[in-house]
Amino acid sequence: MAKSNAIHVAVGVIENTDGAIFISRRHQHLHQGDKWEFPGGKVETDESVYDALCRELQEECNIQVTSATPFTVIQFDYPDKSVILDVWHVHSFTGTVHQREGQEWRWVDRSELEAYPFPEANTRIVDLLAK
């Protein structure tokens, strides 16, 4: 069970028209640094998860979400923090995807996601996408 001070994060599983998924590598100095992740960020007070998702993907990935649906919610406790990942499947967007925060990024086929090291909280997302 996630702690009451858990960080609520909106996460986007962005899929392109070829069915590939966008991932980026966390900066080394960050929590779970050097691991790959699905883009997103903290849900601010008085902000809906969908609004947070749209804001974060615009800030991080240079896209405007035009269609997204809830995918899963994951509660996970790391030794040093707890997170609630509110994961959305982004079906369509406008703009050209790139990582605006200087992270390494790539499009990956679903079947190849398991080859990338993700933070432990993201393992369930990878498992669900592999189905």
UniProtKB/TrEMBL annotation:
It catalyses: 8-oxo-GTP + H2O = 8-oxo-GMP + diphosphate + H(+); 8-oxo-dGTP + H2O = 8-oxo-dGMP + diphosphate + H(+). It comes from the Bacteria. This is 8-oxo-dGTP diphosphatase. The keyword Plastid does not apply. It comes from Pseudidiomarina aestuarii. The keyword DNA-binding does not apply. Residues 6-131 form the Nudix hydrolase domain. SUPFAM superfamilies: Nudix. Its EC number is 3.6.1.55. Its cofactor is Mg(2+). The lineage of its organism: Bacteria, Pseudomonadati, Pseudomonadota, Gammaproteobacteria, Alteromonadales. NCBIfam families: mutt. Transmembrane segments: none annotated. 8-oxo-dGTP binds at R26, H31, E37, F38, P39, G40, N122. Belongs to the Nudix hydrolase family. GO terms for biological process: DNA repair; DNA replication.
